Amino acid sequence: MGHGMRIAVDAMGGDHGPATIVAGALDGARRAGVGLTLVGQTDMIQAALATHDQTGIDIEVLDAPDVIGMDQHPAQAVRRLPNASILVACRAASSGSAGAVVSAGNSGAAMAAALLVLGRIPGIDRPAIASFVPSERGRTLLLDLGAVTDPRPAHLVQFARMGSAYAERVGGIASPTVGLLSNGEEPTKGNQLVQETFPLLAALAGIDFYGNVEGTDITQGVVDVVVTDGFTGNVALKVAEGVGALVVAALRSEVTATLPRKLAALLLRPAFRAVGSKLDYSETGGAALLGVNGAVVIAHGRSDAKAIANAVLVAHRAASQEVVAHIGAAIAAPLGAANPSGPATPTP
Predict the structure, then answer these.
(1) Domain count, the chain
(2) Most exposed residue of 17, 156, 195, 237, measured as fewest CB within 10 angstroms of its CB?
(3) 289 DSSP β-pair partners
(4) What is the pLDDT of residue 275?
(5) Host domain of residue 230
(6) How far apart are CA 31 and CA 47, in angstroms?
(7) Which residues of the chain have a pLDDT value below 50?
(8) How far apart are CA 191 and CA 189, in angstroms?
């Protein structure tokens, strides 16, 4: 599927405007070896393109006059602005002219547009936003990060199955372990949602359920996939990002406090850079919207060009690894049977 694939990028989303998005999208498309469909206001996209080398990239520009702002109500905006860039990008994926969609715009609008245009994978009631976060053992997939703030236990079971399939296909993790985020490891711990979900996950065939995990276990890499509701997941992610930024800022100010430290810092610069990039959200490239019938990657609103480039790479990997078909097969498998092994075959 890799040959001739295109990634549709919503050029109007994000805090930094089309110039940054276009720069990152070009870099990502070049690195992934894919075609690029830039969606948005044509004149702004062309102006941004004019400042970059485009050789070797198959670029298509789709005009979308409407833009959904970060402050607009997602579901209403999607219905009121049929030619919004995120809707036009999703239609490109729906028609098959693009293999995946990337947006750094209003994440609620991206979700509403994807549900409206692409629909859900059969057997999935609610989508979930999933992203890898850095851990001591590599990285941990965390979901949901804000798609469903008040899910029911059955939804968390679906999140566990989708997260497991995604970690396997995109993370390259064979039979990933799954933990349920709680305020203690004991099965009796947790709020009502966690307590009702625990026995369901424990009885679920086809995923390797570890049990309850705590907040600190996310960055320790105790399990490969951590499942939680969108409210808790979003808070956990923002706290982790904040702590990462704090560590980098504290290191920077302490290290340059005195001359001897400044000299030592020169020697340690590569180490600081490595730590900085490990804690940098732009390295993960964006979160996958799992459960919709297409590969959709939601990038951080604050995304710089590097983050957008990485989001394009994530989108390409999700599409070429046929994550949607793999989730569909996992969900369609009877609950008593193990996940179908081997490469997923796309349903006709």
Answers:
(1) 2
(2) 17
(3) 129
(4) 65
(5) 130-281
(6) 22
(7) 1-2, 337-348
(8) 7
Residue ending a domain, choose from 281, 308, 327: 281
Could you give the residue ranges of the DSSP H alpha helices within 140-229?
153-169, 192-202, 215-220
pLDDT recorded at residue 236: 92
Helix (H, G, I), strand (E, B) or coil at 288: strand
Amino acid at 297: V
Domain assignment present for 188? yes
Question: 316, exposed or middle or buried, with CB in 10 Å at 0-12, 13-18, 19+?
Answer: buried
235: CATH? 3.40.718.10
pLDDT at position 282 is: 55
How far apart (Å, rounded) are the C-alpha atoms in residues 202 and 348? 33
Query: Could you give the residue ranges of the DSSP H alpha helices within 256-322?
Result: 259-278, 281-284, 305-320
Give domain status of residue 97, yes or no.
yes
Asked if 233 and 143 count as a contact pair (C-beta separation under 8 A), the reply is: yes
Residues 194 and 225 in one domain: yes
Claim to verify: residue 142 and residue 271 sit in the same structural domain: yes
CA 143, 147, 150, 156 torsion-angle sign: negative
Q: How many CB atoms lie within 10 A of CB 222?
A: 20
- pLDDT tens per residue, range 43-73: 999 999 999 989 889 999 999 999 888 888 8
| Helices 107-117 and 85-95: angle between axes, nearest 10 degrees | 40
Query: Can you tell me the distance from the alpha carbon of 93 to that of 102, in angstroms, rounded to the nearest whole number?
Result: 11
Give the helix/strand (H/E) hosting 212: strand 208-213
pLDDT at residue number 279: 58
Q: How much is the pLDDT for 346?
A: 43
Q: Are 39 and 64 in contact (CB under 8 A)?
A: yes
Task: State whether the Cα torsion 167-35-119-18 is positive or negative.
Answer: positive
pLDDT for 15 equals: 86
Quick check: 85 and 42 in contact, CB under 8 A? no
Please indicate, yes or no, whether residues 138 and 111 belong to a single structural domain of this protein.
no
Question: pLDDT tens digits for 211-244?
Answer: 999 999 999 999 999 999 999 999 998 888 888 8
Q: Which of 224, 255, 281 is the last residue of a domain?
A: 281
Residue 26, CB-side half-sphere exposure with 13 Å CA sphere: 19
